[in-house]
Amino acid sequence: MTQMLIYEKIVVLDIKKHKNTRVAPVTDFSFAASANSIPLAGVEFIEAAKEYPIAFIKNTQGEYLPTIILGLQNSQNLFVSPDGKWNAHYIPAYIRRYPFVPSTTNEAGKLNICIDEAYPGINGENGVPIFNADGTPAPLLEKSVQLIQDYHLQMQNTNSFTSRLAASGVLQEMKAEFGARDGSRKFRLSGIFVVNEKKLLGLEDAQVLDFFRKGEFAWIYSHLTSLSNFPRMLDRFFAQPQ
Asked: 121, 102, 93: which is closest to 26 by C-alpha?
């Protein structure tokens, strides 16, 4: 099983192997302390925009992925405190599903449910069963499976939205320079893409209506509004102990 962002040791859940496994609810988010960005589903844009900058990152296949920006430097998450607390009201679904995660199978539409065996809360004193005695999913796993399935479906919808958005030609690379108010420290942020509102307003009516009818125009403007969170992130950055 290959590694994924924030996951270290992913294995497929197996009733024989994990029948007696207990998992503690996640209260320590240290596992995400070095994640400076996290994938985001379109339905999360409105809530996420209240606290995080939302941008688009281009992967190695040339696809654009909606992402919340969590840090201004590599391996930096400004929303995880030294004691592992998540310092924002809205926690993205990608984080909330941890330590569980899906993997695709050879069967179309079917997912394997996996777990990160590196999670310290496995078989801890506060752990609860993930399987019932009869082998069916216990409440913790049942809830996690529902979240994973919903998130997987929403990401498919989001990928469709992002592909159409990119094809419309409204995305442009954002190049910004940030610095302390006294000018003592400066650094540049690059490699992220944002919607050019002028180009957005210049789209054909049919394209605009398509985004609107699908409920995606609200996502676009949530993204644009979220960019005002960059200065707030800068305040977080410079409030850290040096």
From this structure: 121
Nearest to 66 by CA among 33, 44, 96: 44
DSSP-derived letter for residue 130 is S
The predicted model scores a pTM of 0.89
Which ranges in the chain belong to alpha helices (H)?
15-18, 45-48, 93-96, 139-167, 197-201, 205-213, 217-226, 229-239
The per-residue pLDDT for 183 is 61
How many domains would you assign to the chain?
Answer: 1
Q: What is the pLDDT of residues 110-165, one digit of tens each?
A: 788 999 999 999 987 788 999 999 989 999 999 999 999 999 999 999 999 999 99
Range of the domain at 208: 10-239
Residues in the chain: 242
The type of residue at 196 is N
Residue 205 lies in a domain: yes
Q: Which two tokens stand for residue 208?
A: 């605009």
CA distance 164 to 40: 17
Q: What are residue 65's DSSP bridge partners?
A: 57
* Phi then psi dihedrals of residue 234, to 5 deg: -65, -40
DSSP character string of 31-82: GGTT-SEEE--GGGHHHHTTTS-EEEEE-TTS-EEEEEE--SSTT--TTB-T
The verdict on residue 43 lying in a domain is yes
Q: Compute the distance between CA of residue 240 and CA of residue 76 in angstroms, rounded to an integer.
A: 12
Please give the backbone phi and psi of residue 161, each rounded to the nearest 5 degrees, phi first: -60, -50
Tokens of 222: 């949530």
Given this model, what pLDDT does residue 1 score? 34
